[in-house]
Amino acid sequence: MSNLLNRLGYLQTRRDRTPNLDLARDLVARNDMAGIREIAENMWNDNKNIHGDCMNVMYEIGRIDPDLIAPYSADFIKFLKSKYQNMVLGAITALAEIAKVKPEFTFQHLDDIKKVKETSSDMTLNKSISALANTSAANVEYSNVIFPYLLNHLSTCRFKEIPEHAERILPAVNEDNQYDFIKTLEKRIEELSGSDFTRLKKIIRIAEKLSLNS
Fold it and tell me: Residue 211 has what pLDDT?
């Protein structure tokens, strides 16, 4: 086993992800392209613990600098069909970051991302919303295709999901679509109470200020 892989949490017999995060930060700090390539290749390792840790390192790299994991975009799309849910979650997390710097790629794979969104729950669903929103935010063409889909989701999702998903969609809100976004949220806000109600009111206020800040 290489010295690099020996730094993974599993191979250090650690149950937490701190070693993976430390490794990701180190690879980014050193701009270690060869090291990142080795981690990317081992997302396909036969040992599920190693491939899971490598996926974890890759998306943590993406959170710091998505350009560094963009060359492996096609791999992440393939992992959306993995039988291992942690790999699906890791892949969509990575794609949500890649969408910020390579939206043309995620736009080309909207159907794959939508399928994950429509067949997953909890964190994987949340990350798929981010991937779609970050792609939508790139330009008018992408927004015209994706934003109505996101609004439809806000209109039909479980009421407990509304604040979380509205917050994730915020990056895609602009002057052209803010009215429809606000109107959609206002139709559902009466379903909420307590902290969820307060959180959604704050999101609406943020959206209302977009035209003032332009």
Answer: 66
